[in-house]
Automatic annotation (TrEMBL), chains A, B, C:
Residues 7-322 form the Porin domain. Gene3D superfamilies: Porin. This is Porin. Pfam families: Porin_4. GO terms for cellular component: membrane. Keywords: Signal. The keyword Lipid biosynthesis does not apply. It comes from the Bacteria. InterPro entries: Gram_neg_porin_domain (IPR033900), Porin_dom_sf (IPR023614). One of its GO terms (molecular function) is porin activity. Residues 1-19 form the signal peptide.
Length: 341, 341, 341
């Protein structure tokens, strides 16, 4: 019995193999390190004395360690084929394990909901557990900071848009994307049925986006809305405008959003920016800032760095502060290694 | 870091690689499309007003969308090796994600119970989550119709035979199969312990089959029985006879069964037939009909088509009616794409 | 569409492919056979008559079959890369399915918690779901007996040391190992927070080990301790000394431990030994014995054999007796096939 080795070099060594027309791709990354979160709390086993046996009794929320071992293992499983006419079909399921960030213990790996894609030229249609127009929007996330990407320019946004779920089943929706020249358009639709006082109502949500790239700058705008399903309650909506550009070693993004979730404490304008700077051959510095005008909008400010080790591995870390007008501020930080495979 | 590409063309390009003696195979398919089911119902979240927050409250069964996004992602994971003596060992676990057909939402992917196989010449022994003699019987399923194979000639059968479970743990049973010349024989045994009034009883089930192929026709017969475990209650049983043949572009199957499940509403004779016809190079037309003589036996009639796109991808769809003597009839239909990998 | 075949021979055929620098490895084994356990009990469905329908009612513990179909499917999924500086990063998740040993039914496959590794020269650091110093200790397990490895020399040990979990999330801990010449050192640390009467306490555990190899003999010693977290309760601890050697066809191990778990019925000295003997080219005979001086310490005596079929497949079996000073003795045995892939 010989060991099975499925590795990139092996296949690249078979020169002349330009493209496979059907098969299964495996890719992903691992990351692990130390994560610090001020005043971390979590639910742990509670033992009531005088019983001195360690039998699990009940659960209680207590202060857990501020610094814990954080980690993620992500494996993308992509089945694909290409028709005689050049249409590509893909199906993806993701296998992912994360630590339990409240207690610092480990979680078992899990599988998410499947996403299916049809790709032909500049047209792409996704179905199932899909990302919508916001989740796919150029520069929506900007330069997130830290091994765990714990801070981003979008922190003031509270609208629940259609997003790809890495650890759950996600929505069962459809996303369209069409790219032509410097323009790209996106749209998604997600049906949902729920009940109010026992009668079914529709809580469908949809979003659209447009993106334009000119020289080294990309501008994007997106709008999305969710049927509230309840008479007299306005439909929650979100409008986002982003700008991103690169000038040599410097990259930056700007973010403005109007958040109408029908919740006063978080509605209104959200804004943010982020920047990256390549310091020498292997080091990248990162900065991000996000905020909103409502009392409970989360403000995030963070700086971080990535040091490239080659081979798809890097050291990453960051430090930042989470705050809001009516919150206590909280310091967060992390440091560790990430490796792609 | 280079991307990992595990693909068929790459390995086929390494000429002279006839057979691997140990390793892991990945194969499967994705399918997605629109599924229609008249009067579809499902359990959804129920919100009680005047609370106008969208907090999940209780669950209630309501009418959901008749037309939903249907999908499946299936990946077979097969570990295998071959001994010096030419005996092949295999172990399979299946990873599968399906939509929730009651609500139209997505489900996360899951893993099923493992199946183990020993294969030597015409002899095959399966253990674990196995398919029994019916599930393996030639022409039992015939030509099922639709993207989701929603109709089949076996619709009047209600006996719970040993079947491979794609999404659950399945039974922990043994299946034997022996092929010699034009004949093939199968047998399975599945042990089960349960309790009646606190005392353990055996609810074992077994089945046997014989198959004979002459020219382009295959005839098969199978019988199976389950210990009821309760004194005075007869053992449920099932007898099935199938015939299948191919004549050029036409293929057809016949199905007759005697269903003795000790439930009057579904017992008695079940019958069905199915047909397929290749219309030109890429299109296949399908028809299936299944019925039974008991009041609650499900009658299914459906027509469908498959259009081959090449590369293992196809467009598929069907429309049919489900009915029974004491039921309201229900129209079902679907259409979508399937791609193998 | 061509079938995807990921197999060792294929890649070995591409001569000159010495080492891949990034990718995903799949490896594992399957095993299945008959397992016998005297007086096996399990929780099964209980039906209360006069209802004669097979509707699941409640669960009750009854005698189940002593001889059941046992099985395991194990797949290791290893993502890896190597930096320009020669540091190797690895992440592993294991997919495993086992039978339910109490009822003889099958379980679905599951995924465990992820383990991450950094390897450079003789240094290895593991994080996440790791094995600690005992679980990694040379000759700790010795020659375990049977298809299911149902008996081992360590049977008298009751300390709950840090171990790799194949079917659960495991601990979220760190393990260090350093090998230099004939010496190797190991250490692990596992943080845990729980609560006593609602207040958080630390139940951290740690262990250290040292191993020395001289000629064909390996000696190893390890010590580990767990914070009890409760004032007035001593910290449970374990000390282990092992010796192992090989002389031609004969291999043997010795095991002594001091078990201080603060539970009188199982504390004290534990000891054991094991042996293996290669009888001809394909057969290996195995023997193991483990015991302890406390009343409830488990004594295990077992003999077994492995017959190599080539290609990574083998037939394996064993028979043994479990006993303790205050227990009824129990005969256990198994026989079946195992195949690596």
């Amino acid at each position: 019995m010989k060991k099975v080795l499925f590795a990139s070099t092996a296949l690249i060594a078979t020169a002349g193999v330009a493209a496979a027309d059907s098969g299964v791709n495996f890719s992903g990354y691992g990351r692990f390190g130390i994560g610090y979160q001020e005043d971390r709390v979590g639910a742990v086993t509670n033992i009531v004395t005088p019983s001195n046996t360690a039998t699990s009794a009940t659960s209680v929320v207590v202060d857990t360690d501020d610094a814990i071992l954080v980690s993620r293992f992500r494996l993308n499983i992509d089945g694909f084929t290409e028709t005689d006419g050049g249409v590509r079909f893909e199906g993806r399921v993701r296998l992912q394990a994360d630590e339990d960030s409240s207690t610092g213990e480990a979680n078992s790996a899990g599988l998410n909901g499947a996403r299916f894609s049809v790709i032909y030229g500049g047209l792409r249609v996704d179905a199932g557990n899909v990302a919508g127009s916001f989740d796919n929007l150029a520069n929506y996330y900007g330069n997130e900071v830290g091994l765990e990407l714990f801070a981003g320019q979008y922190s003031g946004v509270n609208y629940n848009f259609l997003a790809y779920s890495s650890t759950g089943s996600g929505a069962n929706a459809v996303f369209f994307q069409y790219a032509v020249g410097d323009f790209a358009f996106g749209a998604s639709y997600d049906t949902r049925t729920f009940a109010v006082n026992g009668s079914e109502v529709s809580g469908d949500r949809w979003d659209v986006s447009a993106t334009y790239t000119f020289n080294n700058i990309t501008a994007a705008v997106a709008y999305g809305q969710t049927d509230s399903g309840v008479s007299g309650v306005s439909d929650p909506s979100l409008t986002v405008l982003t700008l991103g550009g690169e000038w040599g070693d410097f990259g930056g993004t700007l973010f403005v959003a109007d958040d109408a979730t029908e919740v006063t404490a978080t509605d209104g304008t959200a804004w943010g920016l982020s920047a990256s700077y390549n310091l020498g051959a292997a080091t990248t510095l990162l900065f991000t800032y996000g905020d909103g005008n409502a009392d409970a909008d989360l403000q995030q400010v963070a700086i971080g760095a990535i040091y490239d080790l080659g081979g798809g591995a890097s050291l990453r870390g960051g430090i930042g502060v989470n705050d809001c007008d009516i919150c206590d501020s909280q310091t967060v930080a992390d440091f560790g290694a990430q490796f792609n495979f």
